[in-house]
Amino acid sequence: MAKARNLHENIYTLPNFLTFSRLIAAPFIGYCILHDYHATALGLFAYAGITDALDGWIARRWNLKTVVGTVIDPMADKTLMTVLTVALAMKGALPVWLAVIILGRDVALAISAIYYRWISLPPPKTFARYWDFSLPSAEVRPTTISKVNTALQLGLMGLTTLAPVVPGLEMGAALGVMHYVVATTTIWSGASYVYSKDAVRILTPPKEEAENEKAHDGSGKADKDSQRKTRQ
């Protein structure tokens, strides 16, 4: 903990590059949906889904997990979900009330992430250090219901994106049921972050770090005093 402020990690890993590519793909998917390039939107969405599974497998298989990966992976998921939600709602393919629930939860989580990053960042708290993702300070641990909710949301968005590509595919009733299921899990998952103590783990608590350093300094002084007395 005493060395926490100097802790850096290698963020240039294949899983992180795949995650970042998924982050970049999100606005292009939204553009394609808004301009009725449905096949291209579906293809990019499939790419996002494949890389989402692949980056996690690679990180576990070759021990390439990073703290920044725990942050940008859900960030990429939420960016994709936000873009899809807004684009599909604007095209009338997604109910506005469901879009409000999904976006409201994500905005609340984003504000919480900004807050936890700030309070967990070891001093000096500067703008450059705040955005230095090689300096980890807090780790996000998605709750079980959050993982289920993400899967259901992606399933709903995938089916909604698929519908215009396949002529004659009737999914109105199934999508109607999924709207209410996703609304329920979205609210539930948002509440789980509030009541779960393990959702966010601060890696460098400033107060504890200071106390440990003081205790270390105190014990060091005591050892020196003891050595002086022994010599006398």
From TrEMBL:
<keyword id="KW-0472">Membrane</keyword>
<feature type="transmembrane region" description="Helical">
    <location>
        <begin position="79"/>
        <end position="103"/>
    </location>
</feature>
<dbReference type="Pfam" id="PF01066">
    <property type="entry name" value="CDP-OH_P_transf"/>
</dbReference>
<keyword id="KW-0812">Transmembrane</keyword>
<keyword id="KW-1208">Phospholipid metabolism</keyword>
<dbReference type="InterPro" id="IPR048254">
    <property type="entry name" value="CDP_ALCOHOL_P_TRANSF_CS"/>
</dbReference>
<feature type="transmembrane region" description="Helical">
    <location>
        <begin position="12"/>
        <end position="34"/>
    </location>
</feature>
<dbReference type="InterPro" id="IPR000462">
    <property type="entry name" value="CDP-OH_P_trans"/>
</dbReference>
<feature type="region of interest" description="Disordered">
    <location>
        <begin position="206"/>
        <end position="232"/>
    </location>
</feature>
<keyword id="KW-0808">Transferase</keyword>
<dbReference type="InterPro" id="IPR004570">
    <property type="entry name" value="Phosphatidylglycerol_P_synth"/>
</dbReference>
<protein>
    <recommendedName>
        <fullName>Phosphatidyl synthase</fullName>
    </recommendedName>
</protein>
<dbReference type="InterPro" id="IPR043130">
    <property type="entry name" value="CDP-OH_PTrfase_TM_dom"/>
</dbReference>
<keyword id="KW-0444">Lipid biosynthesis</keyword>
<keyword id="KW-0443">Lipid metabolism</keyword>
<comment type="similarity">
    <text>Belongs to the CDP-alcohol phosphatidyltransferase class-I family.</text>
</comment>
<keyword id="KW-0594">Phospholipid biosynthesis</keyword>
<keyword id="KW-1133">Transmembrane helix</keyword>
<dbReference type="InterPro" id="IPR050324">
    <property type="entry name" value="CDP-alcohol_PTase-I"/>
</dbReference>
